[in-house]
Amino acid sequence: MTHLQVPRIGPRSVFTPKAAALFVATGIGLYYYFQHEKQKLLEQKQKKLESRSVGRAHVGGPFTLTSHENKPFSDKDLLGKWNFVYFGFTNCPDICPAELDKIGAVITPLEKEYGNIFQSVFISVDPARDTVPQMKRYLEDFHPRIIGLMGDYATTKNVCKAYRVYFSTPPNADPKGDYLVDHSIYVYLMDPKGQFVEAFGQSTTSEEVVERVKKEIAEYEQETGRKV
């Protein structure tokens, strides 16, 4: 009997020219897809930055005052730290001490978590009575990261205008006079670039301020790659 020899067929390669072309086309497609998605993310991030910038109130500006250590202090000294800015006067009977205590209660837990990246400035709205020695004595009872600042009446008026702060001290106030000063009661949060972030009123608790600051630091770090 004659047996037919059936030719053996070896394994066929699946990586044909057609498959190779499809593989390359898929790779190119994926590359452009991810490039497109990356560009969308960059655009979204930029829009977020622009919206945050546009949404900021125009609070703050250039100033040069004298610190309670009798040294010049300008808006440039706010850069590189998260700042709490508060306007008041040393003869304030209750509101200013309460707000300065609150600032201390905010800075203390934040420093434990983030380190020394915070400072606060207490800007006097009573230039007639708040001298360097008076401010120095007054701040001994508050957080050491609070810096007292003062200037003459014209300079004080300009700083208050830049920060949209109202104060009632007359330009010819008697340094020995027994008077109270009506003024705006807000603690301003400024970022490490010196830009306004938020204003906290009397009703805002220290815990609420701490949580808001943490949120702002996280967003700042996401945008800039650093905390300050």
TrEMBL record:
TM helices/strands, residue ranges: 15-34
SS bond partners: 92-96
Protein residues bound to Cu cation: 92, 96, 183
Cellular location(s): Mitochondrion inner membrane
GO function terms (MF aspect): copper chaperone activity; copper ion binding
InterPro entries in UniProt: SCO1/SenC, Synth_of_cyt-c-oxidase_Sco1/2, Thioredoxin-like_sf, Thioredoxin_domain
One family name in Pfam for this protein: SCO1-SenC
GO biological process, one term: mitochondrial respiratory chain complex IV assembly
UniProt keyword terms in alphabetical order: Copper, Disulfide bond, Membrane, Metal-binding, Mitochondrion, Mitochondrion inner membrane, Transmembrane, Transmembrane helix
A GO term from the CC aspect: mitochondrial inner membrane
Thioredoxin domain span: 54-218
Presence of keyword Transmembrane helix: yes
Family from the record: Belongs to the SCO1/2 family.
Protein's recorded name: Thioredoxin domain-containing protein
